[in-house]
Amino acid sequence: MELYSTAQAAQIMSSNRTSLTGCRVTDRSFNTTLTQVELSVTASVVSMTVGILSNTLALFILVKAYRRFRLKSKASFLLFASGLVVTDLLGHLINGSLVLYVYRSHKDWTVFDPQHILCGFFGASMVFFGLSPVLLGSVMAVERCIGVTCPLFHSTALTSHHMKKLLGLTWLLALLVATLPILARRPYQIQHSRSWCFFPLGEACDWLDLFFPLLFSVLGLLALFTSILCNTVTGVVLLRSKLRRDRHCKGTSHHFEMICQLLAIMSVSCVCWGPFLVTIILRSTRDHDQHTEMRMLLAVRMATWNQILDPWVYILLRKAVLKKLFSVAANLCSPPFRALYRWNCSTLKGSMHTTASLNRPTCFSTESHNVPDSTGRATSHT
After folding, report:
1. How many other C-beta atoms are found inside a 10 Å radius of the C-beta of residue 129?
2. Which pTM was predicted?
3. Are 174 and 132 in contact (CB under 8 A)?
4. What pLDDT, on the 0 to 100 scale, is given for residue 57?
């Protein structure tokens, strides 16, 4: 009996120790999960706030510039840029609000979305606000390429009315891709992190489940390739005209400002959206594991930075800001370079004054004849 009671007491103590250990592990995992959720919510709030403020400031700058260049060749570029910033602003408002609502509801989709309606809207919003900026960037690159290489065709055929229609068609194409799974009764699915919805990846039942994510990725990669190609052609043409000092190419400063902005937009899109689009293709065509899910979540977070960095391209890469930055850089350079720069400027001004004086001999000759006459008359009167 004593042995039995001792063994029973030891078993009870071990079970209690196991339960305490289990409670501690559960509490630690709960605390870790709670900390991760708090960090995710904080990051979402910060990115949403910064994105809204940045896009609002960029929209104010673009609207002001569009009113000033309404009847010039830059108006169409500013129209598409304003449409891009408006798209990014609405994407931050809608997607950011949905993410915060999901975290506030503790990701329990069965409670707050039993009919799977919110997930469908969330997935369509992710596709629309993800594909629209990439397509608009490619359309802007094509428009600038036509404006630089074929200015006559651009001024006659691509009017502001046509540009507005093209902007609407770009939005309609992105909306069509976003609503195709709903129309085909292939609903969006909750992803592994349970914080967002997207195409069903890696669980294709038929060719439609494989077609929709591949269509999204191929369109995005094709838009990025078009932007790279058109911006390269535009940059080469502008550099050639600058080196040849072509007098027929007017308004090259505006062209260079726009091509700098397009190159920045293209770089941001390639860095932010390139990994996400490639990851979707890999997820759709290959088996996935836990590491693939983590890479997917990281790629989504990188893609959200596109909507934050896009407006800063128009805020910073303006002609006035670039001039100020160039003047600050010139003031901060070493004294020998500044002395050389002043010497060149003084030499240039001296040569200009010398040339002007050599080109005006008649003025000096008339003055030389008038002075003796006036002095002669003065002496005669005296």
Report:
1. 23
2. 0.72
3. yes
4. 87
